[in-house]
Amino acid sequence: GQQLNQSPQSMFIQEGEDVSMNCTSSSIFNTWLWYKQDPGEGPVLLIALYKAGELTSNGRLTAQFGITRKDSFLNISASIPSDVGIYFCAGMNRDDKIIFGKGTRLHILP
Amino acid sequence: SAVISQKPSRDICQRGTSLTIQCQVDSQVTMMFWYRQQPGQSLTLIATANQGSEATYESGFVIDKFPISRPNLTFSTLTVSNMSPEDSSIYLCSVDRSDRKIMNTEAFFGQGTRLTVV
In what helix (H) or strand (E) does residue B70 lie, and over which residues does it extend? Predict the structure, then answer.
């Protein structure tokens, strides 16, 4: 079946640093979604992307829908402690099924 | 966005028993979904809950193990039947807010039900 390869699997950064993570697939997706999940909570939608090449921002977060429709990245600028969590990419395919990446665990060093 | 209330938020159950998880949405939605998130893992779609018809299950999931109800457009239940320790996971309800005219889709999640089977 379709799979999303999300990387890196985990990141350890200093507060204030910028963060970049991405998802790739061998399949085309019509929509890319980025979520953040805090412990004990459900995923919260951060950014939704609908067109190839689209670049969308939400505060310090920026995400792009790759031109080939097979990839997407998420950047976080000037990280703060509350950015800690697990970030998931998700793609919606032609059958309207949402496929999730395995997540990127973000840790911020004191 | 959509407000999704899921309960219970957590439970510890004996093996061999069943647990029914409820999902209530603050507005009518066409599509409701149930996901499983095993410890430290990503989300896997169990089934799509269809109003007025049987749920559509993904490969590896069957109705006898995970019966689903969808009595109306704002409510669904997922039952985890005859539980074993391998069923210990977070179970998440999700709704899809789609505007097909502009091809925009957003999926929102409940806070999840953390199930531990002992």
Answer: strand B68-72
B31, B96, B109 ranked by CB distance to A42: nearest:
B109
- Give me the pLDDT at residue B98, please: 64
Asked if A86 contacts A107 with a C-beta cutoff of 8 angstroms, the reply is no
What are the tens digits of pLDDT across the range A56-88?
999 999 999 999 999 999 999 999 999 999 999
**CA pair distance A64, A56, nearest whole angstrom:** 6
In chain A, which residues touch B (CB < 8 A)? 1, 30-31, 33, 35, 40-45, 48, 50, 88, 90, 92, 96-98, 100-103
Instruction: Determine contact, residues A88/A72, Cβ cutoff 8 Å.
Output: no
What is the C-alpha to C-alpha distance for residues A34 and A27, in angstroms, rounded to an integer? 17
Of B38, B51, B50, B36, nearest to B93 (Cα)? B36
- B43 in reach of chain A (CB within 8 A): yes
**Predicted local confidence at residue B86, as pLDDT:** 96
* B102 pLDDT higher than 60: no
Pairing of strands A31-37, A44-49: antiparallel
Q: Report residue B86: phi and psi, to 5°.
A: -65, -15
